[in-house]
Design a protein that fits this description.
Four copies of one chain form a homotetramer. By secondary structure, the first copy, chain A, is an alpha/beta fold. Chain A has twelve helices and 13 strands. Chain A is globular.
Chain lengths: 336, 336, 336, 336
């Protein structure tokens, strides 16, 4: 049994890590920290974990953990990570702190300096379908953003196959749980219910993240216009991506391209009609793509809290700890 | 043209008053106050009012208004009302400050002293279907609570007809706009979406309000158990009320009782299947009731912001100002 | 009082016409036909119309109507229209039968021959903001599609101002009422609830309609890729449109372009954040647009049953009948 | 590995059985039948099962199965069960065919004769928390109704402890997936979205089922008024139950009563605030209860497709097959 800890256990990603890990065959939750709930049983504040996570929240983690998930907000994580790595613990950071490899890009998009340039440089982007071998070797993984996961998985095969131009438009739609657990005017039900709200058009932090990763895997300079919309649902992301072909390509070619990329992947499937309901509550991603004249429309659907956050982090942890990659994640989506 | 003012124009009930009154044939919005938005155009912060309410929010109201709607939170209204009444303006208070006629009941349910006992005693409960003649004569109306409106309209005819016992169980369901515009954990979309949340069971402030009004109209001592639930919809209340017959009564008798009570009412209809969608965005209320052995199940459906708040206030204002009672309110519900 | 009739009064657009017209100051609903409900009172099957539309559904319309709304499915309307026009009645067809001016285009997109080529040629596209003078003179209006209305209003100013290329990508999102009242697997709540469903990608009938109208107003050959998505809400459309600049244009220029086009329009407003909730239950459309490098993202938000169907039809009827264009439509959206 | 079959694999309960069983450690899905989809891969029609259930639907089941789940509509199951039992296979019927032990009650509530009186008499009601030992010994289990499960688990402890009167009012709320996968006017999204729809008031088939079971476990003649409401959510039931105390009982007594009943149950937890989100996508049930004067309000929350259908059936199968009762079901609810 590998021993792990979670820093920031009361937020949505911390809770979702606990939900997944509490029935993981090879990993044991040794400790979860929470400033406001220290001393309380996890299952008393999050009653759905009753019988599964009955330990108490603590103020700090014990030593000698195999891996720590840092589930704190952007800007906080980079204060925790250096000491953890220094003590020999592997780290998966759930925030955006270690995703952009460049301190100046970080400052531009996150609004403050990065204080851990060294580990930022060494961190690996935790998308196993594209960076599996690097994840295996690193001690510090930057867990991908939810929108970024859906969008990159939907579009990377076309860029890698070199059949599309670098200019990509992404019209993404997310459930409200992506905004976290702190109440705010935009996530207030009477405001976002019975509507769809575009926000951060062209200025969302996942835009440079998507560009950075697509550039890395395709060796091209992708130029992404990213337009997120808030959906009146709790979980799920659908990313609708518009690309322009630079070669004559048929739908059969498209199918071959995606099957070559994902044919052996346990969690990514190429299907005719990607659907949020098919993947919700699972670590699966459904992708699809079709040609319309000189355009390709590509879709990616995930559960933003699982493949878009905590499930993907567990997938990375499995790889980093030498476990079976699918351990604890091997369940289908809800379907209905 | 009658001139009115709105104190507290940025909240949901203030905005809804503006939405209704801006096309009222005989009433003109002279001023709307707002502490945080004073100096801004109403239609700049609430863009749906563009072309309809293009005045600016002010810090205070001008003199010589015919009527003022006080749309501030509980506890604030009673600081505004005495001066308004003193200056000869008619007042409709949208909060709970003037609904319970007893300062000790007020203190018990609202948690602080009532500072305007005199006007509390004189205030009239603004439910025109039951207190029309009193509303006509008063200068101070306590606009009913949303749940209270749906529940009282659904049950009062049976109590007035003296066919049911005093013990009433009310299982009420409300859309989230009833909670107002300030974000909170319960109204956070990921918490209340895809769920139904019971809250304030047996301790909601509308429970004594319902009891007080039902006792007044039926001369009986009703004993209400009120159990509100938060629905994952924006607008609408359905109140499902359980009563026990004390006489042999058929469904035909029930129909007669409701038609006697509401047959000439413009806004309350007795129908087979009361439905939120049929009344949403209108001042209408649909009620229904059926006998099951010794029980009656009665339903009341309203739009919580219209008949449950601002529409009802306008209906009262029409009566108080000697206008046609239906003026500015004479539109059907959305249906779909 | 102008006398109108509605053919097909039980569907969503027929019901919505009744909801709007029953309080219209200058128009009277003389008759509504329905095959399945003939002989029943309208307000018995659609209880939200109680007290507003208490006439009975009939099998056919009387003579001597000023105007008839044909609210039947595609393919049915063209069987009704010739006789109506022949008898001197003005006609507004709510279906797609008279929108594409070309019988071969009609056959390609609707799958069967058009049997009324003559009136097809004479029909006017009922979007007053672009075809007001033509609507005034015609006897036959093709009421625009819901998606088409939101998309054309959002993008036409940029094409007319000649600042964008002809290639347009439209990512549109619609509430479920757009699908009409007949149950189907896609509109089954457990399928479409808590999800967003792309459908008819690149093959929706509004794609050629949008292209046809944009080409007409801009004299350019627009090439539209139209990707509709089904939202888990009842009413409302948001159309997110992606265009490419062909000139250096700033956000200030954009604002001027839209204000020049719509500054005097009663129902179309250019705002920073177009929102479905701001227009729902009203004939209003909110549009917005911003520049991102060489791209423009333009939004259009409407209530699909009002400005996207029955409200727009009433607006056209007002124009055709010489009434005030805003008569019966002059109410703001719900806001909340 | 135990071998099981599913008759009627394309419906919601059949699909949910497959979703759960495909990762069950001790059970193997040997065959799934479907009339319309025979010959197709399960994971081609239900893509969320890709990689999990890649067998083909068949027309009939093979012999030598350990257990068969009959997931066909009411009235169909009783044609399948006798032969299955005759061949020595254990059977769990998901429909209502074997729940009411009395052929005359069956005829009254289901509208047609029961053709398998013998097995009806022998069948065991598959609620393990109340009938565990009987389930262990039987070959035919009637899987409980979804509403019945939530309601019985919420109220049975009070009746067994003999602290409440026999008269019970149940105000139940269910997500739309409870209605199955066939489209219908009531489950059409524009009708049931943004609303809550009461239906089958006092005439729902789960009313006699609840009465029958409560009478069986408490030896009293419970008299239930059951009022179901359709919620605009996909999954989840909340049953709000109103009972009257016949003894002086405190909230502490209530807690003891429930803990005595469920303290050792793996899937039923007594909590302060039972919540649908806490149990969704799991076999868990949360119950709660509080005293208000002489009344008790008791809540039960489940996922209607898991503890309310397929999860409970798997729990019963585990018991019938001598497996660990929690096998394949040991995961917490989603929480968010």
């Amino acid at each position: 049994m590998k021993k792990i800890g979670i820093i920031g256990g009361t937020g949505y990603t911390g809770g979702e890590l606990a939900r997944i890990l509490c029935v993981h065959p090879d990993i044991e939750i040794t400790a979860m920290t929470s400033r406001q709930s220290a001393g309380k049983k996890v299952s008393d504040t999050q009653t759905y974990l009753k019988g599964y996570v009955d330990i108490e929240y603590t103020n700090s983690l014990p030593n000698e953990l195999d891996l720590v998930f840092v589930a704190t907000p952007h800007g906080v994580a980079m204060n925790e990570v250096p000491a953890l790595l220094g003590s020999g613990t592997k780290v998966i950071d759930m925030s955006g702190d270690y995703r952009l490899h460049d301190t100046s890009a970080y400052k531009k998009w996150y609004g403050h300096d990065h204080t851990d340039a060294k580990n930022l440089k060494d961190s690996v982007y935790g998308l196993p379908e594209l960076f599996r071998s690097e994840i295996k070797k690193t001690n510090i993984v930057a867990n991908p953003g939810c929108y970024a996961t859906a969008t990159i998985l939907a579009t990377a095969p076309l860029l890698i196959a070199d059949v599309v131009k670098e200019e990509i438009t992404v019209d993404a739609k997310s459930g409200t749980s992506g905004a976290g657990m702190v109440p705010s005017p935009r996530i207030h039900h009477p405001f976002c219910g019975e509507s769809i709200i575009p926000y951060s058009v062209g200025s969302h932090r996942h835009q440079p993240e998507i560009e950075y990763v697509l550039n890395t895997v395709s060796k091209k300079c992708s130029d992404v216009l990213f337009v997120p919309h808030l959906l009146p649902i709790v979980r799920g992301i659908l990313s609708t991506c518009y690309l322009t072909l630079k070669k004559d390509v048929t739908n059969e070619d498209i199918t071959k391209i995606y099957n070559k990329q994902y044919g052996k992947e346990p969690f990514v499937h190429f299907v005719d009609e990607p659907s949020i309901r098919s993947v919700v509550c699972s670590n699966h991603c459904q992708v699809g793509a079709s040609v319309f004249n000189k355009k390709v429309v590509a879709f990616g659907a995930i559960d933003n809290l699982v493949k878009g956050a905590s499930g993907q982090a567990v997938q990375c942890a499995n790889i980093m700890l030498g476990l079976k990659e699918t351990a604890g994640l091997n369940v289908p989506g809800m379907g209905v």
